[in-house]
Structures are given as C-alpha cells and as structure tokens.
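Quick one, T. Sequence first:
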Amino acid sequence: MSAIQKAIPVALQQQLANSAIRTRQNAEAIYALLDAKQCPVKVADIQEELGIGPVDYKNARQLLESITDAEVYVTQDGLALKKYLTDDQRYWHLAWGLGLLRVSGEQLVMDEDLLLKVPAALRKLLKEKNFRRHDHLSALQGKARQIIGTVGKVLTMYREVDRQLGAALLGTIRDKSFDDAMGVIQKQLKASS
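Structure tokens:
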C-alpha cells in the first residue's frame, strides 16, 4: 500500500475504486496533499505540486467533490479537508453554498418544462435503440440518485431551520392556560413540518 493510499480512509478508497484509474490516482493524490498541508491549498499549487494539468485536476476535483465522505471543501482560500477548517471558514462555506443553491435552484426552476421532458425523451431513445449502453445508463441513474440524496438532505436541513424559526417567531402567548399555549405551539410546529 502506497503512502498516499495510507492517508486516505478505507471508505473513501472504496468509493474512488469505481473511477477511471488516472482520475482516481489524481483524486487520491489531491486528498493526500490536502491532508498533509492541513489547510486550504490553491488550485495552482495543487497542480504544480502534483504535476497535473487543468483537465486532470478538474476531473479529480469533481470526483472528490462528488463523494460526500471525502469532505473536501471549496473555500475562498482553495481546497481543504473539512477536518482542518475553522468554524469561520465553515460558516463562509455554508453561506456560499446556500447562496449557490438558491441561485442554481431558481435557474433550474426556470427550466422545469425541459426537465419534465426527460423521462419521455429517455423512453424514446430506448425504444429507438439509440441509447442502450448499460454502463452509461447506470452512471446517469447514479448521478440522478446522488442529486436526489443531496437535495433531500438540504431539504431536511431547511425544514428544521424553518421549524425552529417558526417556534421562535410565535412571540408571547396570551392564552389563559399552559395547555392552550402548548396547543398553539403544537399547531404551529405541525403546520411547518
């Protein structure tokens, strides 16, 4: 086992194993570099230290970013592993990520009509036998499931934030008894979930 592979958690190694060899090796090398540096590292520095070009870097970074277990953060100071970031860096990352989600979500909603056409288009391609490669279809399905999982996690987080904000905004309850007050709170929480 190489020094690079020793630095990478086993679960991450297993997820990387399904990737193209060169991309996987570059992703492992980037992860090991970030782990060794223990701080954000600029793209140019990663490319220079690993001797890889922009395309190899991009492919490896996309692979790492697609694997949640890698916990690779894109920060204003470069790529970093979550375990080495300060709370301030993580708050910036959260605000940035939520901003991206809002903007990209609004952009996706504008193309809802096109997205709704995808299932029919896939059926047509399959019927005409223009789209039969099992590996390609499996990869597309994997990406779709990954997006569903990510959006589901974010939705759950937002629901909890909304619920807590709703409870905080209840204000002063002026009902006569504690039971009446609890009824108001429970109604509000049910409405927000």
